[in-house]
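User: quick one - fold this with adenosine monophosphate bound?
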Amino acid sequence: MKIITTPRDMQAWSRQRLAAGERIACVPTMGYLHEGHLSLVRRARAAADRVVLTLFVNPTQFGPGEDYAVYPRDPARDQALCEAEGVDVLFMPAAADMYAPDASTAVVEEALSRRLCGASRPGHFRGVCTVVAKLFNCVRPDVAVFGQKDAQQALVIRRMVRDLDFPVEIVVAPIVREPDGLAKSSRNVRLSPAERAAALGLSRALGLAREALARGERDADAVRRRLERELAASGLRTDYVEIVDTRTLEPAPLLAPGVLVALAAFAGRTRLIDNCEL
Ligand code: AMP
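Assistant: Sure. Structure tokens for the protein plus adenosine monophosphate:
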């Protein structure tokens, strides 16, 4: 496995592989890899000749007071996992190599980004779109794989790719969970035992939404309130509980098959998200 640390070297590698007629798949991550990330790598390998995993904790997608400084990092372990998974290139640039001190250009998606996580994390998707656009320009992938765990992110990226004509196919892979239902996340390592137990409230709340649909409940707002109570009873501080149209992220008045139930809540200081499409 090759480790590449600068955009220029990354572009040179990709130029060669593309000239040789190979297809490149990209898996963008912030590292501290877990089984969710590795499932994306396997999906990527099935879709291309070469897999590039990018590891970059992107400062511009964290707001002031968020967890950029304490975001879990273990590049040596990530490297070993990538090696074992048959990744061809681990692209791990330093922030100084990605952003010039006077960088003044950004990519802003202006509709989907306003909702859900975008409402509680202003500027988050501006940072995400900008860094993903940059990573696409470095890696020049034919296909990029994202996780349904970040459902809104995947939608925003798809929209960006469509609107700006990036020649990249976007694949979205299912959420990988712990045996007890907690969605795998790099941030889970920061949970105390009590917070880890409380965090199960998220997947439990999603289960309640599925049960409500199965029972024939149709009032999305009543279900939303029920889920909020479940998060609170679990010891979580709700950021949002939303029942929305899967494509537009507009609030859905009726609980119906195909709507997206999206949750964000704090366990202590750690913000967790989860979702399911009913
Ligand atoms: P992150 O490193 O958290 O920014 O995530 C990098 C990519 O992995 C994103 O596309 C995430 O949606 C995806 N991902 C994170 N956790 C999971 C999970 N539990 N299951 C599937 N994909 C995931």
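One thing worth noting: The CA atoms of residues 100 and 146 lie 27 Å apart.
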